[in-house]
Write a structure and sequence with these properties.
Blueprint lengths: L43 H13 L10 H8 L6 E3 L2 H7 L8 H29 L5 H26 L21 H19 L14 H14 L3 H14 L22 E5 L13 H5 L16 E3 L1 H4 L9 H4 L3 E3 L13 E4 L27 E2 L22 E5 H15 L6 H9 L10 H15 L6 H7 L9 H12 L17 H6 L11
Parallel strand pairs: 5-6
Antiparallel strand pairs: 1-3, 2-7, 4-5
Length: 529
């Protein structure tokens, strides 16, 4: 059952980031009686309210184009996930511009919350120095802020490379960071923050605190940060510690990674808390963007769909792969054919033999299909099942949390680190993931072949979870020794029949135009200059 607790993301008063509230305070003889970031954080409980707002940024936040939806748009650069709206379409065709709306929004959300985390870290230290009670909670909240700062920086550096890095609260536009050597600085900070957070954060929470970052969340993200930095030994050791000590194991059913009933449990190590029932202003818009456009409105349809995988990608899965049911919608009632003989909406089913084209139909069942002939009631697009909920009466009242870190990520990271470092058993993690999928174990592969197998397993395991593009980007040096993965991305593009040849700039996003124009200390990524 959904936990309608106070920790569900809060639309908190953003007093602690509002600079204008402090203007001219020095001209007043009396003490101000309004809330500012200087006078609000006086207790451990107030500090906790502040960190709740930083969590909110990874969920629905206050933007329709929120932190996770913008990343869904970026994912269209790969070619396996495609879109019919102009934003996703620009990425799908490789036409990304520094003035892009999604990049600008993602950047603002990330740095707003980094600044909030910086504020909380500073305030936590001030409260401890002042002798404020409940030191344990202050330490925990500070560790959560360290984790969240690392989380936002990590999900910036993997897209933009050299990013501005700042560890103190920004007060005005005279205090703007540089992005010189930003990737190195970010990776160092991320690793330092996560190591400190892992030392303090509890292994688990109960009740209303369920969903907060744990020790295992910090360590799982640290594994990913080490892989990003090609620190194979530390990545392997950290992943092995999680395997040996966390008690976490894979769900038997892959689909439980996305089910409401299993939120904040099992292999779901860290996720954004979203619930329209807990707060009418909370919703997640994944369902509305990924649901088939011909799903009836009274079952959660909205009359459009902006994102789905291609038929060719859907066919990459082995027919016996148990992840298919949790990854793709296999059947649904459609509004496109007429009502059937029983006066009901006919149920259409996925088939590799169904028509598929790039245009408006997008692999839907044909309008003129016979509503009483099952052989004609077929579609071919790879509609996502991970965050859609067929049967909703309101397409924006989805209850599914957004999962950012899963145990499968740790296991595949363990295999990658073992394979690259020559340490331990490189088959351990990947074979557990494959076993859950109902696939045979791997063995006897050379290092390069196993490397490719791990990449392929990541793609199939995390499809339409915003992980494929940044992971392939991480493993690729365009035109260099590892450009075999560039060919892998190109294969997705070719399968969709897009007239596009992969370019070097496809491996990095441009810094947003507003940042370049407004911050004299940053330099645009060279490929976009």
């Amino acid at each position: 059952m959904k936990n309608n607790s106070k920790f569900k993301p809060l639309k908190l008063l953003y007093a602690f980031v509002v600079v204008t509230a402090m203007v001219s305070c020095t001209d007043l003889e009396e003490n101000p009686d309004f809330t500012t970031q200087e006078n609000f954080f006086q207790t451990a409980d107030q500090l906790e309210l502040g960190v709740n707002a930083v969590y909110d940024g990874i969920g629905t936040g206050r933007d329709w184009e929120n932190h996770y939806y913008n990343r869904f748009v970026f994912e269209c650069l790969v070619g396996y996930q495609v879109g019919y709206e102009k934003g996703p379409l620009a990425y799908q065709t490789g036409n990304v511009d520094p003035a892009d709306f999604y990049i600008g929004r993602y950047w603002r959300i990330s740095y707003e919350n980094i600044n909030r985390a910086n504020t909380l870290i500073e305030k936590a230290d001030e409260l401890k120095e002042a002798g404020v009670a409940d030191v344990a909670k202050i330490d925990r909240v500070k560790a959560e802020a360290l984790f969240l700062r690392a989380f936002y920086y990590y999900n910036l550096v993997r897209y933009f490379d050299d990013i501005p890095v700042k560890t103190s609260r920004s007060i005005d536009d005279k205090d703007l960071p540089s992005n010189e050597n930003g990737k190195r600085l970010a990776l160092d900070l991320i690793q330092s923050d996560l190591m400190m957070a892992a030392e303090i954060l509890p292994e688990s929470y109960t009740g209303e605190d369920s969903g907060r970052a744990t020790k295992w969340a910090a360590m799982a993200l640290l594994v990913k940060a080490y892989l990003q930095d090609e620190k194979w030994g530390p990545a392997y050791t950290t992943a092995q510690t999680i395997i040996d000590e966390s008690g976490i194991s894979l769900f038997t059913d892959f689909a439980d990674n996305f089910a409401v009933a299993t939120e904040n449990s099992g292999e779901r190590i860290f996720e954004a808390q979203v619930s329209a029932s807990a707060n009418p202003n909370e919703y997640q818009n994944y369902h509305a963007h990924f649901v088939p456009r011909d799903l009836p409105n009274d079952l959660g349809g909205v009359g459009w769909h902006w994102l789905n995988s291609t038929r060719a990608f859907r066919e990459r899965y082995d027919v016996n792969d148990k992840r298919i049911a949790g990854t793709f919608i296999s059947e649904y009632p459609s509004t496109r054919p007429a009502l059937n003989a029983a006066g009901e909406r006919p149920v259409v089913r996925w088939s590799k033999d169904a028509p598929y084209n790039l245009g408006v139909t997008g692999g839907l069942v044909p309008v003129d299909a016979d509503p009483n002939n099952p052989d004609e009631l077929i579609f071919s697009s790879g509609f996502s099942a991970k965050y859609t909920e067929l049967g909703l009466t309101n397409p924006y009242a989805n209850e599914k949390n957004i999962v950012y870190l899963r145990y499968a990520d740790v296991l595949l990271g363990h295999s990658e680190a073992a394979n690259e470092s020559g340490t331990g058993d490189p088959y351990y993690g990947i074979n557990l993931v494959r076993e859950r999928a109902g696939l045979p174990f791997l063995s006897g592969l050379g290092q390069a072949a196993l490397r490719d197998a791990i990449v392929n397993e990541r793609v199939l395991e995390f499809a339409m979870e915003n992980e494929t593009y940044p992971e392939l980007k991480r493993k690729s040096t365009f035109g260099g020794a590892q450009d075999y993965l560039g060919d892998y991305i190109q294969s997705f593009i070719d399968q969709y029949n897009v007239d596009r040849t992969l370019k070097a700039k496809d491996y990095v996003l441009p810094l947003p135009l507003n940042e370049v124009l407004g911050n004299p200390n940053v330099t645009q990524n060279p490929l976009y200059q």
